[in-house]
Amino acid sequence: MHVGYSLLTLFPGRVGGSETNVRGLLGEFADGNGPERVTVFANRFVAAAYGEYARGPVSLHHVHSYRAGSSMPTRALAMSTARALPWLAARDVPPVDVVHYPVTVPIPRSHRPTVVTVHDLQHHDFPQFFSRAERAYRRWAYDGAARSATMVVAISEHTRERVVELLGIAPERVEAIPHGLDPKRFTPLADDDAALVAGLDLPERFVVYPANLWPHKNHERLVDALAVQRERDVNLVLTGQPWDRLERLMDRAARAGVAARVRHLGHIEPTTLAAVYRAARAMIFPSLYEGFGAPPLEAMASGCPVAASLRGALREVCEGAVLELDPESVESIADALDRIVADDDLRKRLRTAGTERAARFQWSDAAHKHTAVYARAAELAR
């Protein structure tokens, strides 16, 4: 089995959980825990950033005919061109048995059996978070890709149920395969944490929220909760891409009187993020919607107690191993902050429950299940 793994629309370091999934699977495939041969269809950014995976059964193929952009307008132009002129991006792609689109967007178009990964259907569940143009794009890139695929991979049972219900896809064509975790990186003990966090100037007592500044991540209510919680010596450390929303968020923090207690680190590498988890008093995760929810699992595996919403897929990932909060209630978020910072017994219980829960999620399991899906797609196309 020769699988084409299309990353033409991926810009490394900008998309959060979907890239975590991409890298986790590629690492297993490169170690021999997957198809006999995997060719990554790479744009120029992926070709430069993913060299570590070009080993064993995995090779990188730079698709020069797809001219990926580095900004939203240039990326949109590249995708629009590939959609209007599908032969253009496809002319520089080697022949394969099955094509997998792990970041959903079906570029390059292929006449071979296809597998599409759907990470969420948020544009259906929270359409108010998207412009009309964004909803139209997602209907093509997500809904259309899933409906036309031979097989669909959903990253949680929640997402699988929404794909079947909202897109009308036969249940037997949709497989739920959750993310795994890197146990070497996300572990409660590490020797080099001091060096990893040395340049970050972390506060002495802080909670961490790793999330791009997207509307569903609910940063505004979190800042409001920080202003009314009792534990006034605790700081909030944010990570992730700001997406032109940081100034607005910090203005809100200033109006609430907590700007000095909020620090945004931007995007940081996973190894450094694991060290931040271990340094934190706790993670706070008040998301309104998740197709999976990798950050709470990463924190659990790193020995960091977690207070989290259970919306979307977070219930199946986190329930019983986190302090639950209501993401639509500032008071609930503030109470969770106070409890998880101040109650050492609670933090100890959550740390134990979290490490046990995180141990269930293995990239090797995800890789083997994907390999079975590729075989199923090839079989259905015969």
What's the short version?
With 382 residues, this protein is of the alpha/beta class.
Could you explain the architecture of this structure?
- This protein is an alpha/beta fold.
- The chain has helices spanning 17-30, 44-49, 72-84, 86-90, 122-125, 132-148, 157-167, 193-197, 219-228, 246-255, 270-279, 294-301, 314-318, 330-342, 344-358, 363-380; strands spanning 2-7, 37-42, 58-62, 98-101, 114-118, 151-154, 174-176, 206-210, 235-239, 262-264, 282-285, 306-308, 323-324.
- The chain folds into two domains: 2-180 and 362-380, Rossmann fold (3-Layer(aba) Sandwich), CATH 3.40.50.2000; 193-358, Rossmann fold (3-Layer(aba) Sandwich), CATH 3.40.50.
- Strand 2 (37-42), helix 2 and strand 3 form a beta-alpha-beta unit.
- The model has no long low-confidence stretch (mean pLDDT 93).
